[in-house]
């Protein structure tokens, strides 16, 4: 593992912070720590790490809230740490953008294996390779403002703010309309890594975007599922500079 990799440990338990700091430093990582949300935000203001270990149960903002905060601006890999081995916690964490989940107590070797596996999958996102976006993009009854990342329902006169990952997914579809995109392509564009066979995050994200667009159930007219191949965005798209 390259010594240039940086990890931010966010946990209110001082013993765990010190243990992980020592272990990861010996493994060649550059480690910083935070005991709660405000300290985490101050760390992130100085630059994002290569990976974040984020505890779920903390005073003040919990890990789920902080995961949402991170995902508004970054696709940095996140591993959630929790003392509760509960499937619902795992689902909530994935829905909010976490990449992996490990229950306490865990062995440092197990955590290291998770970290290495996740970092191996991280690659530059396709979204970073897309040319400068137009100011507005129109499709169906919607207008997307690319600067503010707000989605406007032209017919109803309502607007909605998109999360960073949802905006990246919609931009991928809008820049490649009527093209079949497989799960790996979607995962690279929105999360910077390949889709793992068991990952539910793509399904959750697609479902969330479909719901926002009113494109759910049997009325899926915009995001079409191409069985065995992927998904295609079925709409006429126009751009305004």
Distinctive features:
alpha/beta, Rossmann fold, Arc Repressor Mutant, subunit A, five-stranded parallel sheet, 8 helices, elongated, DNA-binding
Structure description:
By secondary structure, this protein is α/β, with parallel strands linked by helices. The chain has 2 domains: 6-122, 3-Layer(aba) Sandwich (Rossmann fold); 136-240, Arc Repressor Mutant, subunit A, CATH 1.10.10. The protein has helices at 14-26, 37-45, 63-71, 87-95, 108-121, 164-175, 183-191, 201-212; strands spanning 6-10, 30-34, 51-55, 78-82, 100-103, 136-139, 142-145, 150-153, 158-161, 223-226, 230-233, 237-240. The strands form 3 sheets. It has a 5-stranded parallel sheet, sandwiched between helices. Strands 9-8-7-6-12 form a 5-stranded antiparallel sheet, with no helix packed on it. A two-stranded antiparallel ribbon has the order 10-11. The longest helix has 14 residues, at 108-121. Residues 134-235 bind DNA.
Secondary structure layout:
Layout lengths: L5 E5 L3 H13 L3 E5 L2 H9 L5 E5 L7 H9 L6 E5 L4 H9 L4 E4 L4 H14 L14 E4 L2 E4 L4 E4 L4 E4 L2 H12 L7 H9 L9 H12 L10 E4 L3 E4 L3 E4 L1
Parallel strand pairs: 1-2, 1-3, 3-4, 4-5
Antiparallel strand pairs: 6-7, 6-12, 7-8, 8-9, 10-11
Helix pairs in contact: 6-7, 6-8
Pfam family, one: Trans_reg_C
GO molecular function: phosphorelay response regulator activity; transcription cis-regulatory region binding
Protein name: Chemotaxis protein CheY
